[in-house]
Amino acid sequence: MKRGQAALEFLMTYGWAIMAIVIVGAALFALGFFSPQIFAAGKGCLGFSALSYVDHLFANDGDPIVAQLGSAKDKVCVTAVTLTLRDGTTIVTPTGLVGTQGGCGSGEVEIIANGQATINATGGSLSGQSVGDAYSGATLTITYDVVGGIPGHSDTATCNGKWE
Fold first, then answer.
1. 35 in any annotated domain
2. Whose CB among 22, 64, 139, 140 lies 3.0–4.6 Å from 84's, allowing a Cys bridge?
C-alpha cells in the first residue's frame, strides 16, 4: 500500500468522526454553552435564541420583572413577559410593560436592531416568594413582534438567581 493511499483511507475513515465533533462543538458554542455564565452559580438567563440577554431582576414587589435585553438584527416590539417556575407554576404574568415605546403600540416596549432596552413588567404578583431565596430553572418567556415582519414570536430562557 502506498503512503498516499494510506493517508486517504485514514482521512475517509476518521474524517467523518472529526467533522461530527466539530459540528457538535460549533452548535454548543452557538447555544452559549461555553459562556462563563452557565458555570457560575450566580444569576443569569441562558437560552434566548433571537434576543440577547444582558441582565434581569425578579423582585418581590409591584414591578416583579425587570429584564435588559438586546435585539440581534431586527427591530422588535415586546408585547408580553411571563415567568414560570421549574415545576410549571406560572408565578407572574404582568399586566403592563414599561420602557421605551418608540414605534411600538401602547403597552409595548421597543428594542431597536442591534440595540438594548430595559423592560419593566408591572402589575404581577410574586406571592410566596421571599427576598433572598434562590431560584433556578425559572423560565422567562418574552413575546414580541418583529417590526415589518410576522407578529407573535416568542423567545424563552432559563434563569437562575435570588429574589430581590
1. no
2. 139
